[in-house]
Amino acid sequence: MSSRRSSGLGTAPLLRRHAPVFAALGDATRLALMARLCERAPCSISQLAEVSPITRQAITKHLRVLEGAGLVRGEMTGRECLFQIEPEPLDEARNYLDLVAQHWDVALVRLKKFVEN
Question: Do residues 63 and 83 lie in contact, with contact meaning Cβ atoms separated by under 8 Å?
Fold first, then answer.
């Protein structure tokens, strides 16, 4: 059995859990919205639109994708919906990437030993 399968990195449940997060963050506009929310949160759609070249409607669509991936949470405050980062999915994604990096490190050490022998 390959080390990737035995490590669990490519298991279907793990991939299903992390794929939406990476897909949502794979868009430059959504990544910029996440950066803005990291700098100043909570923010309304209007506040996010003030510093963005895209429309409020486009921002809303991008925020819905981020919300669907669990990366942001919108909460109604009066007539506005204020959005803020949900850190847990980001922490889980970072932990997954750390695990992938560890597996690459092990693989590179094995390759180095193989090449040197």
Answer: yes
| Helix, coil or strand: residue 55 | coil
Q: pTM score, two decimals?
A: 0.78
Q: Which domain holds residue 39?
A: 3-116
Report the CATH number that the domain containing residue 43 is assigned in CATH.
Answer: 1.10.10.10
Per-residue pLDDT of the chain (117 residues; tens, 9 = 90+): 444 444 577 777 777 888 999 999 999 999 999 999 999 889 999 999 998 899 999 999 999 999 999 999 999 999 999 999 999 999 999 998 898 888 888 888 888 888 988
Dihedral, 35, 33, 41, 90 alpha carbons, nearest 10: -60
Positive or negative: CA dihedral 85, 91, 93, 98 = positive
